[in-house]
Design a protein that fits this description.
The chain has 13 helices and 10 strands. The chain is α+β, with helices and mostly antiparallel strands. It folds into 3 domains: 82 residues, Winged helix-like DNA-binding domain superfamily/Winged helix DNA-binding domain (Arc Repressor Mutant, subunit A, Orthogonal Bundle); 158 residues, GAF domain (Beta-Lactamase), CATH 3.30.450; 92 residues, Enolase-like, N-terminal domain (Enolase-like, domain 1, 2-Layer Sandwich), CATH 3.30.390. The longest helix is centred in the first third of the chain and has 20 residues. The two termini are 46 Å apart.
Amino acid sequence: MISSEILDERSKKVLCAVVESYIRNPEPVGSRFLTRKYSLGYSSATIRNIMADLEEYGYLTQPHTSAGRVPTDKGYRFYVNCILGLQERERDEELESFLISLTKTLGKITRHHNINTIFSQTTDTISTLTNYISLITSPRPQCTTFKRLDLIRYSSNLVVAILLTNEGLVINKIINIPSSYSQQDLNRIIEYLNSEYIGYRLDKIMEMLHERISAEKSQYSDLINKTIKIYQKALSLITEDIFVSGVYNAINLPDFSDISKIKELYRAIKEKHLIIKLLNDLLESDGVQIYIGSENPIDELKGLSIVASTYKDKKRNMGVIALLGPKRMDYLKAIHMVDTVAKLISKTFD
């Protein structure tokens, strides 16, 4: 495979111009169009020859013999690497205005709602503004800390469990309990948990309970045993989840005008566990991460691109926010948006 390092400045300029043109309008790009649209300083014939070389190198492809050319995954990757290398350059006025508006919108959301609502409304907002699918993974149990558990008896063997975390997650669900458990038992359990384990990681508490039962005096064994059984059920309420918005916005893009492409998109979203795994794999990374087309490890996503970044609680990576869209994505806007939103959500945790 020919390395991108062999490209001279002329080839780089022409390649970036082709990608930018195709992002704006999904029509094959010809040399004459580039001559008119961009001040490249080269003749139409020269540009045509450069485009032919770029096709030979695998950066462009020609859908039809008489048509212009469109970027390949390799061409998009070269363009994205150029953008990432110039992150500090001035943003255009439209993008700057867009990000200011987004910051204000998300600021209003984060001041008045819990984390679940913030995630839901954030994905709705950015999918509406971009027409891409937006995704946010909720914090994993090992990233969240205990604040309070409430148990409200619903019937003889059913209880409504309401679990709150210090990060703002509120999870409630009906759980089964032994009918022998009295309301007094439940009161003792929540009093014990709410007084002893505030601020501890959810997954660590179970380990601490098992350690304590072997160390405590016998009169506490019954309480701790019952607490373990209830807490296990309550902990099962915390599942790795993902907030998704914008599928209907995305299918209005010209990239999904073909019904087979729409089906492909729906298949990708349907496999939520695969997307969660992919995004969780990015939790160990910092900064914006990008998968383009064939770079995606999930087969169902190889026709799409993902731009993602982690949000944090101080120095801990808590979860991932991402935009999922066509390979003909406006990467500059997507990168700045994901980066901005991730920082805003991180500020919410701080």
